[in-house]
Amino acid sequence: MELLVASAVGILTAAGIYLILRRRSFPVILGLSLITYAVNVFLFATGRLATGAPPILNKYQEVAYTDPLPQALVLTAIVISFGMTAVVVMIALGAYLSSRDDRTAMPVEPEGAGDDA
Amino acid sequence: MSLFLIAALPFLGAVFPALLIRAGRNAAASAAGLTSLLAFIGLMLHIPAVFRGDTVHASVDWLPALGLNANFFLDGLGFLFAAMILGIGLLIILYARFYLSREDPMGQFYSYLLLFQGAMVGIVLSDNILLLLVFWELTSLSSFLLIGYWKHLPEGRQGARMALTVTASGGLAMIAGMLILGHIAGSYDLSVILQNKAAIQASPLYLPALILILLGAFTKSAQFPFHFWLPHAMAAPTPVSAYLHSATMVKAGLFLMARLWPVLAGTPEWFYIVATTGLVTMLLGAVIALFKDDLKALLAFSTVSHLGLITMLLGFGTKIAAVAAVFHIINHATFKAALFMTAGIVDHEAGTRDIKRLGGLRHLMPVTFTIGTLAALSMAGIPPLNGFLSKEMMLEEAAHTVWNGSHLVIPALVTAAALFSAACSFRFIAHVFLGPKRDDYPGHPHDPNTGMWMGPAFLVGLVVLIGFASAKVAGPLVATAASAVIGGEKLPYYSLKLWHGLTPALYMSVFATIGGLTLLALHGPLQRIWNALPRPEAKVIFEALTDAFTRLSQSMTEGLHNGLLTRYAAVMVTFTVAIAYYAYQGGTLTAPSRTVQQPGLLPILGWFSLVVATLFIVAKHRNRLLSLVLIGVVGLVVSLSFNYLSAPDLALTQISVEVVTIILLLLALNFMPKETPVETPVLTRIRDGAISVVAGLGAGGLIYALLMRDFAFPTISDFHLANSYKGGGGTNVVNVILVDFRGYDTFGEIIVLGIAAMVIYALTEAVLNSRVRAHLLNRTPDLPQAGDAHPLMMVVATRVMMPLALMVAAYIFFRGHNLPGGGFIAGLVAAIAIIMQYMASGFAWATERQRFPYHAIIGSGVLIAAATGMGAWFNGMPFLTSAFGYIHWAPLEEFEWATAALFDLGVFLAVVGAVLLALESLSRFAWQPGISSEHAMDINPARDDADKTGTEG
Question: Given Cys at both, which of B653, B670, B724, B765 links B736, Cβ 3.0 to 4.6 Å?
Fold first, then answer.
């Protein structure tokens, strides 16, 4: 199970970074979303993995609970990352509509184009 | 009066002039004056204690972990300076009332002045060097405002910038020096540092600390080679010059050297650095001053010279020299402030302060003439005025000081400096007031009104009084201040009197005076020679230097930030991976302490679909719609795995966020190209792929290593598990953490969410108000549209589901404290319920039924959360302490109430508002004329009525 989670985090991170390195805004947004998943799962997993042990207190008998703290942090992180995605989408959309161009690079003068252009 | 109050009064008072200026200039001036007077009286109340030799303390631990405490203390030295700052401040406030013209914003002036005054008082009363640094920087900032007060003058702005650059960079060096000093002494409290002379001087860090601190002091006190900012700061109004450059700001450096004298002075390093700098500055300032035609420039350079004199005395490191330094600080403040104000009066009345256009004013301005002459004679060191006394003491000390084995260097150079200083004082008198009356003054010179000459007259009164009866008038003050400078040790023998007999000092003095008169007689030819000599212009050098730095930083910035965002991202990722690898190499990885859990079939299936979807996204990301669908798969799997891995709250949150995110992205995609073109060469893609794979391996490996080991430190989660029910009254620990244990975080997060939504709203407004609007209105869809924009089935289904969905939201909300759910999830569900109406029935239809603006919902959510938190105050508890209890109604289950639920309501509202505001803003891009007349269902019996009444059932 640990290997599955860890490899999923790795794959999501790699895919996210690859998309962030693209030159148009939409793939970058997709990449950000993938990285968000990766980061959230990563943070959640720092509480270690457990099945069938939700941190809901049982009044009637002693049972094991998983670590609740990373869950609380990740819960707000998920909601905040929605806010962040929305802002980025808005910026990308505004930039596209204003300049009819969705490249992420700043428009550069010919002599400063650099090796990546 | 408490020292806190004395230091705080000017800051508090700074508010009033700016506000009261509407009530007139007199109101503003008297508010400033009263504040200063109050602080001055408060200071004077401490006279008995200070003159007994006690130190008054007032302390509060501010940030004890950093060693930063708001400790103040008042001893003789602090008293002397505070009295000068507040006393001369009062005179300046009076003077400025009449000096500033009707067009000058006087309220601003007094506010700045009081800010500056407060910062200065703070410096001289601080008992903690970190606190002192704070005030030190404040003086740099407030003096910037004061020097640049005449914003319309380019010289004013340049002078202010230069002063800020020089003094603030010195201040930076001083911060480092002070930190080292505090490190050596083991405390940042001055009272402790001053007891640790032996330890500090023995430390190998003594020299670096000394140099850094002196950099701060020298820049502030305009010592060579940093002297150049002071003359340029003369572009300020004269009251500012008189205040900053006679009694306060430039004296701050001297104060610091005097304050730290007990621990820093007495070493050869101190002597050679400080005394030599002082000597050079003194000579240089006096020589340049003689040849300046601008009255204020003349005074500025002579101030530089006198500051050098005092610095040199402090540099000698002997006790008697310290006494002389203190005495000269007092004397210089009195005569120099008077001279600056005189120069201001001349400028104000005669219309110019160019010496070449002045002369003969003694007939026209007798009062000003008397004041100016007495002050200038004191500066020249003519008996029986006070300048003579301290100058004698200085010459006496200089005559006995050996510099690098030579008995002659210091006496000779000091005499030369005294000679030039006398000459420029005589020139001030002779070329401004004496000589024949002229008929080409730009103004109509006459004595100013009483308010303007009162201040300088009072100071000149002190000049004469101290001169005649120095032991009585200034004796006790000099004694207490000097004994504070030398660290409370026994004062050496000295006597403040005019006649000491035929001492070497007297001969030097006589020589300087005669030489000064000779120079004055020869001034004309000398000036021509001076003008012909090549001189380095400090301003040009300074500007060349700042320009060079600007260009350097510009080229560095532009070299690194060339506008290619992908490059930044690549550099950042590579760098992060590199330092992580470095850390991995340097650290040790313990053996795994946990066993691997065997996954069942379900997790393997989930993993498989996640991996396939992710790889497909990468492969097919050019088809944007397809990748959106696939990213939904990823989100679903993540959400399911949260559920599988004992995190039901996360699963619920993730799946609802997933829904709104996809809607958001679909909305955006509606306006954007549906395909991503191929732009990068294969090589670049391979490079990017390599970077990503390495980063992915790193992230995966890190979490795998973490998962295979137990916690390295005891976890705090056990506390939450143990106290969730007892302390928070809920069994859903995650929710209790959110609304109770870490409620402050949550409070911050809903505010962030609200701000994000507002940013989106604001951006929408900005874009829609630009020329983009026209394009949007005339847009033709790039994909075929659905035949029916509002399918009947969907409209009916969503309307039926609306109350059900809201019911679910309410249910999730209420059970959140004990079972999975809570404000965040309920908010998302409710938002989705409303978004469905927008989607099915159309934007116009939904907007018509919207009761409250979404901004208000966000705001009310934040306010409810804040009010709940503040409610705890009324029970004497800290912000956001929750209370709860149980109610038992006979037929019902035990029923819990908790203030946390109210807080959760705030969260709920903020989430609903933020999500809806974000999506609604985006949808507004789609609005086109005619769209609002389309109705979701063609058959709507209520519509006809609705058009008339504006509401719909």
Answer: B724
